[in-house]
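Q: What would this chain look like folded?
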Amino acid sequence: MLAVSDNGRGMSPDIIDNIFEPFFTTKELGQGTGLGLATTHGIVKQNNGFINVYSEPGRGTTFKVYLPRQHSKDAVPESPADVRDEKVTGGTILVVEDEKSLLELNTSYLESIGYRVLPAASPVEALKIAAANDIDLLLTDVVMPEMNGQVLFERIAAIKPGIKVLFMSGYTANVIIHQGILEKGCACIQKPFSLKSLGIRLSEILNR
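A: My prediction, written as structure tokens:
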């Protein structure tokens, strides 16, 4: 069990009832996506856990995350070497991610398995890079400042016809599609993903 507590202003019952809903937020327009707790909830549920929330107005909040214990002694972290046998044909990938650590991790990994990578920390930066380079595939986060991943892909595709795309999302593709952010049938990988699963998805899309 992992507990996280604060001594802030707390939450009323009606807010607690909605905090794990995708895109629900009490912040002003443009100050939050409402996906943080929804993403956390999805990750915990995906790993057979659950979350309890304790909060009262003026008395702070405590989140308790319960996860099953790992009994295996053989589990080891995945490394780029684990996916080197994937069919990598090379090519240039434009990676768009507004979280610096994830951008650096994805860039390092993709370069290690043979791709040329063009990293961008924002959609505006990505558009500038796309205009000046040949690109085979766009790997982009869905919810970002300035514009979402679908709009970014459409703008890049207008100047780079035939470019392929793989969307990254902290929530399931069904939810994002239901909210009208992504089109039905699009290629999407759910965060958090393993290095191997990312390598497999990219290989599938680029070799179609």
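The chain has a mean pLDDT of 82.
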